[in-house]
Request: fold
Amino acid sequence: MKLDYDPFAEVVRNDPYPFYARLRDEAPAYFMEKYDAWAISRFQDIWDVCSSDALSVARGSAPGHILTKDQAVVPMINNVDPPEHTKLRSAIRTLFLPRNMRAVEPQARQLANSLLDEVEA
Reply:
């Protein structure tokens, strides 16, 4: 049976794991003509592709951006390429140091608890 993979197909969304196994076994780099995009299914291949300087995230990094093209790409750190990404990351890096995270922990904990209380109710 020919592999036909569409990540948004109902049958795939209901149980994707058999499709992932077939992709890994039969088509580790599968071109999805409908989306003009590739599905890469093996860990090392994904790692290598994501580590490549030849690729850009400027046109999106999530299926909504890349595949459906329905979601606009908002300029955020996760869809900006170096050197802009490096400058942004260095500018906000210190905000996420442990001492700064400890400073906001009480407010974050209070917010999380109040949201969980609402769900529990």
User: Anything to note?
Assistant: Strands lie at 29-32, 37-40. The mean pLDDT is 86.
